[in-house]
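Work Package 4 report. The design task specified in the project plan requires that, given a folded chain encoded as structure tokens, an amino acid be chosen for each position. We show below one input record used in the internal validation round.
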């Protein structure tokens, strides 16, 4: 059977993040991708200039259309900017019994532009966290979710991931890519243990869409039947390769995208 994953996220008109990055990642990893758009952004490598939220009832219609026809093996959730959007997505995945749900709590674009309303943050935690298999915040997103300073050490990362786990998430992958040092270290915390995933840090300005790409790569692995730990490991290797190859592309004037098809082109 064909492995199928669906991304529920916002559109990036520049093509480097959001729905576009997710579908590229699914394809690169051998998974068929479907999509549910939650927002449209006017965006390029320099920043976000406008956001248009998709009406909640139309998001629900997209969810029903996809899940009523396709045998979905995994779900990646990205940009959910408004409380009613989060509530609609939560009802939709519950209604259709979606499994292997990976939530990337997108809050700020690589350019620094905010992508979620303040009122939506608490709704994200209380409504959606209990329904997902994994959340994948970066250091700044974890700090905002917990209303704490940004973690500045591995111990602080582990502690914050543990707090997020206790707040209702089933598993937490706290990403350390925004930290400094020779290695990019991510920590996976579940009810059964803690595991670190590390890779050499590659110095490049072209990291747009990294978080979207990692979370959708994990969903792709789950769609193909990998365990959570194996899916995270495979996704980490894929994203590391995409970052290393990013400078072979020449896209835009700002933070360019990672190279999703580095092993194909």
């Amino acid at each position: 059977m064909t492995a199928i994953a669906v991304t529920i996220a916002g559109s990036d008109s520049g093509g480097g993040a959001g729905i576009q990055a997710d579908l590229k990642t699914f394809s690169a990893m051998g998974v068929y991708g479907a999509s549910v758009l939650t927002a449209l952004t006017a965006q390029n490598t320099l920043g976000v200039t406008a956001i248009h939220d998709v009406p909640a009832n139309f998001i629900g219609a997209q969810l029903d259309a996809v899940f009523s026809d396709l045998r979905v093996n995994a779900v990646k959730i990205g940009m959910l900017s408004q409380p009613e959007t989060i509530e609609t997505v939560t009802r939709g995945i519950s209604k259709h019994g979606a499994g292997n749900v990976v939530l990337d709590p997108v809050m700020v674009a690589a350019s620094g532009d905010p992508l979620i309303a303040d009122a939506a943050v608490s709704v994200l935690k209380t409504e959606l966290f209990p329904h997902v298999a994994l959340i994948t915040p970066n250091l700044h997103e974890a700090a905002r979710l917990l209303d704490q300073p940004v973690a500045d050490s591995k111990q602080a990362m582990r502690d914050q991931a543990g707090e997020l786990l206790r707040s209702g998430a089933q598993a937490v992958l706290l990403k350390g890519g925004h930290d400094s040092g020779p290695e990019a270290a991510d920590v996976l915390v579940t009810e059964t243990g803690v595991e670190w995933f590390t890779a050499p840090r590659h110095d490049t300005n072209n990291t747009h869409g990294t978080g979207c790409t990692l979370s959708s790569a994990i969903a792709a692995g789950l769609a193909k039947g990998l365990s959570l730990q194996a899916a995270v490991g495979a996704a980490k290797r894929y994203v590391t390769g995409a970052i290393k190859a990013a400078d072979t592309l020449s896209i835009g004037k700002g933070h360019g995208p990672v190279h999703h098809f580095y092993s194909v082109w």
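The chain has one domain: 4-248. Validation will be extended to a larger panel in the next phase.
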